[in-house]
Design goal:
The chain is mainly alpha-helical and 157 residues long. The chain has a domain of 93 residues. Helices cover 64% and strands 0% of the residues. It contains six helices and no strands. The longest helix has 37 residues.
Length: 157
């Protein structure tokens, strides 16, 4: 007796969902949902195949793969949950759980923290030409510095 198209389709879907769930076991919710869907489809396929006395091999394989992937997904999810719990415990005991770490400096809630001083240079409005000396000013500066008559308190103007 050949397999009914519905039983075969359910078996293929259960197998595909189980394999995709195994491939994405590291995504807790996705892997468990896909494996659960494959498991449900596999069980429905087994029931339909039994009812119509059809071959059950493909449906059973799909169901077994879905059960295995469901188990792997649940176990990985539990490990991940435990790891997050341990990290939170660590964070509570660690140095960076202080008020300083939770301040605006690290949370970027106050972007003006670096510009509180009024004497800060606004780097967006610098006039490059005003910073450069022309050659005449440079010569005057050199002669004033090299002049032996200038004492330590004599500054060029």
């Amino acid at each position: 007796m050949g397999m009914n198209n519905k039983s075969k389709t359910l078996g293929i879907l259960a197998l595909v969902f189980g394999i995709i769930s195994l491939l994405f076991f590291w995504v807790p919710v996705l892997s468990v949902v896909l494996a659960f869907a494959g498991l449900i489809l596999g069980i429905i396929g087994i029931i339909k195949a039994s009812k119509y006395d059809e071959e059950k091999a493909l449906v059973i394989v799909g169901t077994v793969v879905s059960v295995i992937s469901f188990g792997v997904g649940v176990i990985f999810s539990l490990f991940l949950l435990k790891a997050v719990e341990k990290f939170n415990d660590f964070k509570e005991d660690a140095w960076f759980d202080s008020e300083w770490f939770d301040s605006d400096f690290f949370n970027n809630q106050n972007d003006d923290i670096f510009y509180e001083d009024e004497d800060q240079i606004d780097t967006n409005n610098i006039d490059i030409d005003s910073l450069l000396m022309n050659s005449e000013e440079l010569k005057n500066l050199e002669t004033t510095i090299d002049d032996p008559n200038n004492g330590p308190g004599d500054a060029p103007e």
